[in-house]
Amino acid sequence: MGGSHSLAGRSGMRRLYSVVPLCCAIVLSCRTPTEPDPPAKYVAGQSYFGRNGYIEYVAGNAPVILTASHGGTLMPSEIPDRTEAACRGTTTAGRDLNTAELVREMQQKYFLRFGRYPHVVISNLARVKLDPNRTNPEAACGDAEAEIAYREWHEFIDEARSIVLASSGKGWYMDMHGHNHPVQRLELGYLIASSQLDLSDAALDANRALQDTSSVRTVSESDPISFSAFVRGPASLGTLYANNGFRSIPSTADPRPNGELYFSGGDNTRRHTCGAEANGLGGMTGGRICGVQIEANFTGVRDNEANRDRFADVTARVLEQYLFVHWGLQLGASPPA
Ligand SMILES: [Zn+2]
């Protein structure tokens, strides 16, 4: 929708340019009846880069935002490696292999299906230089250049969120990662800790704070089904993925971690979705962009181009169902069948 709006703005401007000089030659204090729209800042489908190409934003015009925090490979010497001493805490430097490639493929498959581009933000920096899924000092470890890239990372996502809200009124955020846990499945992180996800459905539904903190707060509040059904019932995102060949937790078949390793979502998800912690990080608690962190297993999802293709295609189809059923958010030209 941003794209068609900008085209109208540009043609409107051309029309005014051709009319104004003649008009002003006749009437000295002539004013145009309406101001033209400013030219669009971004063209959907094109890449824009922050300083030195460290952060990349592929502009979009769909209500979906995809980010890859840990897939970058750039190792510039101007940024020292992140160390525990510099970061004043623990540092994790491992790369999430092929996750930048994965979000690019997800963008392509989404465009093929819906004719619109999701927004994509990628950190091209190796994680040993910047961890955008952490808050400072752990993220940039006090380095000025890494700090610029960190700021640009969030600014690009904020920009994408503004465009989504202006054009669709609501949207969906997915921060894509890769895990190497023993159980091969997608780990969907809604900011519900393992111990909380281990609760019974009744206990999960009885504690309103869990829904308030979750990354799907606003969607699940507007949905008549229970919170537990929303996150692991037959119509949950995990079950939709599982029904399409990608085993997932939480879902009907894998409702709770039960002692297995599980990632529940990181700082990008806290800041850029709609849960209770968003306000404190510069985001919007109770806002109209919700989402999830997906930690993908390697084999069968991100290990080769054919599997990344398959996952990307399934994601477009699954999101079409999921966002329409739970939120009335229509991704295609007509409601999903
Ligand atoms: Zn990661």
Helix content: 25-40%
Can you give the mean pLDDT? 90
Coarse shape: globular
Number of strands: 8
Q: Please give the order of strands in the largest beta sheet.
A: 1-2-4-3-5-8-6-7
C-alpha termini separation: 23 Å
* Cα-atom radius of gyration: 22 Å
Provide an overview of this structure:
40% of the residues lie in helices and 12% in strands. It has helices at residues 2-26, 84-87, 99-114, 144-168, 194-197, 201-206, 208-213, 217-222, 227-232, 237-243, 267-272, 305-327; strands at 47-49, 55-58, 64-68, 119-123, 171-178, 186-189, 248-249, 289-296. The protein is globular. Strand 1 (47-49) and strand 2 form a beta hairpin. The protein contains twelve helices and eight strands. Strands 1-2-4-3-5-8-6-7 form an eight-stranded mixed beta sheet, with helices on both faces. The model is unreliable at 1-31 (pLDDT under 50). The two termini are 23 Å apart. The protein is α/β, with parallel strands linked by helices and 337 residues long.
In summary, what is this structure?
The protein has 337 residues and is α/β, with parallel strands linked by helices. The protein has helices spanning 2-26, 84-87, 99-114, 144-168, 194-197, 201-206, 208-213, 217-222, 227-232, 237-243, 267-272, 305-327; strands spanning 47-49, 55-58, 64-68, 119-123, 171-178, 186-189, 248-249, 289-296.
